[in-house]
Amino acid sequence: MSMLRIYQDSDACELGSFSDFASVSNRLEKIGVLFEQWSASQPLKDGDSSDTILSAYKSPVDRLMAKYGFQSADVVSLQPDHPDRETFRKKFLDEHTHVDFEVRFFVRGQGLFYIHAGDKVYCVLCEKGDLISVPADTRHWFDMGTRPRFTCIRLFTTPEGWVASYTGDKIAQRFPTFDELMREAA
User: Fold this and answer.
1) Is the pTM of this model over 0.70?
2) Which fold does the domain 36-110+127-185 belong to in CATH?
3) 163 pLDDT tier (thresholds 50, 70, 90)
């Protein structure tokens, strides 16, 4: 189940927790973050090609590409046995921004986006069926956990794709990690 926790940015004091789609979507919309849930147009199975996955979500992908001017879409997947999983995880754990949207649709698995807006941090657990679109120039970070397991569709407006500008703020170190939140939820 998707989840949103809102924290005070200064001391990581939790201000609220929400798990129903309408509450999560409405709160994120107020800070400019798009949160949707999509369904595949055809059954998918592990090992499906990127083309098969993109075809299963063609209608919503095409809708967002037309609306926001995205130029490309791809599929990325990471599993717990990937030899570079820790390197990839570290790349996303520090607060950063992009000149482009950061758009992720979770075909499988889950991940945790932290969005720093104003004096709050919005911690969004995205799972299978969830789309999140973080606007350009929005401070955020992402935690996939120490044993990542996800497949995502990514959309880009620039040919370079994902390029981060790190803020240098160590704010991410004050907040619960993916693994800590998953243990707490269990």
Assistant:
1) yes
2) Jelly Rolls (2.60.120)
3) confident
User: What are the residue ranges spanned by the domains of the chain?
Assistant: 36-110+127-185
Q: Which helix (H) or strand (E) holds 36?
A: strand 34-37
18-52 pLDDT tens trace: 999 999 999 999 999 999 999 999 999 989 999 99
Enumerate long-range contacts of 111-114, CB under 8 Å, 24 or more apart.
Answer: 111/142, 111/143, 111/144, 111/145, 111/148, 111/150, 111/152, 111/178, 112/142, 112/143, 112/144, 112/145, 112/177, 112/178, 112/181, 113/140, 113/141, 113/142, 114/140, 114/141, 114/142, 114/143, 114/172, 114/175
